[in-house]
Amino acid sequence: MSNFTPAGSEPLDEEEVYKYLLDRINELEKRNTELREQSRQLEAEKRYGDTQKIRYEREIRKLKSEIEQLRSPPLIIAMITDVIDKNRVVVRSSAGPRFLVRTSQFIDQDSIKPGVRCTLNQQSLAIVDILPSSYDTQVHGMEIVQMPEERYEDIGGLEQQILEIKEAVELPLKRPELFDTIGIKPPKGVLLYGPPGTGKTLLARAVAHETSARFLRVIASELVQKYIGEGARLVRELFEMAKDKSPAIIFIDEIDAIGATRMDADTSGDREVQRTLMQLLAEMDGFDERGDVKIIGATNRIDILDRALLRPGRFDRIIEIPLPDVAGRLAIFKIHTRGMSIDEGVNLREIAQITDERNGADIRAICMEAGMFAIRAERAKVTSEDFLKAVKKLTVDYNKHQGTPSFGTMYA
Ligand SMILES: Nc1ncnc2c1ncn2[C@@H]1O[C@H](COP(=O)(O)OP(=O)(O)O)[C@@H](O)[C@H]1O
Ligand SMILES: [Mg+2]
User: Fold this and answer.
1) Which of 30, 202, 343, 366 is exposed most, by the fewest CB atoms within 10 A?
2) What's the domain count of the chain?
3) What is the pLDDT of residues 189-236, one digit of tens each?
4) What is the domain range of residue 87?
5) Among 334, 364, 369, which residue has the most ligand 1 atoms within 8 Å of its CB, making it the best to mutate?
6) What is the CA(361)–ligand 1 centre distance, in A?
């Protein structure tokens, strides 16, 4: 130890060396703690930096994807028709053709099923997103009425028909247990047929009123769409919606537009109509007659209707709505003059007698026209004369409109 000499100093004695080393150790230890503290601080800073970095990166990614979204071309809308496996799905694009496409792993597998609408990337045609099923706005030309205003007492004549429809639609909706007890199945659907303007729509609405059912009215020609499969989709959605909103009555008006006998369907338009009809048949077969959805169809042309529609389990009650006879016409005149101020001299029975071949819609028009004559003459009451003039006017108008079956149907 005695030869220990710090650089540039006199040799030190043992004591001094000892002190020197002690100081040095203390110094180094102090330095060590300092460095350790520094290192801790740096590490904390680094950690902070890392989280900051992650935050910024996330921000960048978000902005990038937003830019990408803004830049990306519009997506194709398609419907899934078949799911082959986890990765491959068959879709039909809204423009018609079918594709086998891949799906993104970000899409919930459970939501990928036939019938669901999705968007496709324009280039790869891969499924990008699943669209929510918003059929409420999708079912075109459909009228949904919570509960129609019309009642049975607004219908003139047709007593027998009202009775029949009560049995076939009202009873199963209101007292399904009666059918269970006896052990028969209530009819699923009722078809009303007869010339236009005779009160078919009126009757269907009245049933919905009496049963407090939701009334879904669709005019069959609206179901015939431009794109392949679109009509079938609308039919499916119509039934889905009815089940959703049950008790409900689906009323398919002018059903001959899709239900006409299938001839050789050689144009693609005809095939599309056929496909829509097939879907309707499938939906009718598919639902339970005990449920609280009933179907009413109406047509002026039962003669051209496809027999498949009339098979049991489909429209299994067929009710004719004929032109009103004289008693029916009188009843209808009474209904439509209910709110009118009528001269005592008016004999509605006589007017009913001279309006042979006229339908309910014509009678409504005659009443309205008679009222117009009274207004023009500035009278407070409608007279016999007004009615006769109205009958004559509408007959003349009717003849002018040769080929249209009935003048009154303009109001139907
Ligand atoms: N039997 C009837 N009783 C009372 N009004 C009728 C009758 N038939 C038709 N009408 C009147 O004519 C209008 C059109 O009838 P509508 O039910 O649409 O005929 P359809 O559906 O048979 O073509 C009805 O809103 C109603 O004012
Ligand atoms: Mg109608």
Assistant:
1) 30
2) 4
3) 899 999 999 999 999 999 988 888 888 888 888 887 666 677 888 888
4) 76-133
5) 364
6) 5
Do 87 and 51 share a structural domain? no
Ligand 1 is surrounded, with C-beta below 6 A, by 155-158, 196-202, 298, 332, 335, 360-361, 364, 412
Range with the largest mean pLDDT of 15-19, 27-31, 113-117, 314-318 = 27-31
- C-alpha to C-alpha distance for 52 and 67, rounded to whole angstroms: 22
Ligand 1 closest atom vs CA 150: 25
In a domain, 402, yes or no: yes
CA–CA gap between residue 117 and residue 229 (Å, rounded): 13
298 and 149 fall within a common domain? yes
Q: What residue's CA is closest to ligand 1, atom 26?
A: 361
The pair phi, psi for residue 261, each rounded to 5°, is -50, 140
Going from the Cα of 309 to the center of ligand 1, the distance in angstroms, rounded, reads 24
What is the predicted pLDDT for the residue at 410? 44
pLDDT digits (tens, 9 = 90+) for 87-123: 888 888 766 678 888 887 777 878 888 778 888 887 7
